[in-house]
Amino acid sequence: MAEGHCAGRMDGQPAWSPDGAQLCRHCLESARMDVQALVRDYADLENVMADTGAGLEWVTGTREASIPIALGAEALQREIWYLTTTWEVIIRDHCGLSEVPEQRVRDGWAVQRAVRIIAVRVPQLAAIEAISVYLDGPDSESPVDMTGVQAILTMRRLHRRVGRAIGLRHLVHSMPGQCWKCEVDGGLRRDDGSETIYCALCGAVSPWELE
Fold first, then answer.
1. Strands, E, within 25-154: which ranges?
2. pTM, to two decimals
3. d(CA 60, CA 65)
4. Can you give the residue ranges of every domain in the chain?
């Protein structure tokens, strides 16, 4: 995470990557997995809309009025599309890659292409200084300045918002011990009922051996 909330430093202090960005290597790897997950999120939202009957609503857990689930899913899809395609253009320019192809493609395919470009370049994205973007899409009244780190954190939050919205959250057990790969304490997890254990910081996976 960002300054003061770094996943790679369990004492709560900020950890800095070698290029000066505000994310350590563990955060960058975790961010890469969240960015990649946006493609699956987009598809899951498509399935939600396809399976939704008239009148179904989000379960908000608050007293605020809910909205039809299809409208909420469509809005999240649009947010994924805009966020990823916007930063695809920026990272292509930053890394000296070819420009986005001019031919029009379906939004889902555009998300896949954008994520493919961004996910493997998360460290480079984290090093991008503030740049003007239209935060809420082309209909925004005015641009705002956003850094690459802020873009990464926004994508991570968006991934978690989709998970909460479509009910994909599940019971996860925190496991004791140090990761065998990144050698950091506090990152080991096991999904309820699963026979595998994984590190939420670096993504390492291993069979869970019952004692």
1. 131-133, 144-146
2. 0.67
3. 8
4. 25-169, 171-211
